[in-house]
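Section 3.1: Structural characterization of target chains.
Under the original work plan, the team committed to producing a structural model for every single-chain target entering the pipeline before any wet-lab resources were allocated. The record below documents one such target. The sequence was received from the expression subgroup and is listed exactly as submitted; it comprises 131 residues.
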Amino acid sequence: MDIKIRKLKKTELPEINKLIAKVFPKANTEIKQGDNILIADNHGEIIGFSHVRPLQTKLLLKGIGVERKYRGLGVGKKLLGETLKVLAKTDLPVYLKVKNSNDIAIHLYSKEGFVSRKYGDVLVMVRLPAN
C-alpha cells in the first residue's frame, strides 16, 4: 500500500461526499467554502479523509474517516498527523467531537495532544496551539 495524503481536488468533491456519508451516515457532513479537506489516496483510490472547518477563534475537526477495509492500517493516524501539520500554521485550538464508545479514536486523538471534556454521550476534545 502506498498512501499519499494530499488536498482534495474540486473534481473529487462528489466522490468525497459519498465517502463522508458512508463513513458518517448520521452526521451533518456538508462541505462549505473555506473547509480544509485532506484525502488519503491509495494509487488513485480515495480511501480516507480529514475535514476541518475554520471558525473565528478555533478550528473544528469535523471528522477523520477511513474506508472500512483500510481501517487498522495506520491511515487515520497518517491523516491526523498531516492535518495537524497544516493546522499548526494557524495558531488556533482544534476542537472535535467523538462518541464516548469510540475508544480507538479517543486513543488516537489523545496521543496527539487532545484532552477530553465529556458532555453526555459525546466527548469534546481540544488540542491547544503549541505556542
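The mean pLDDT is 91.
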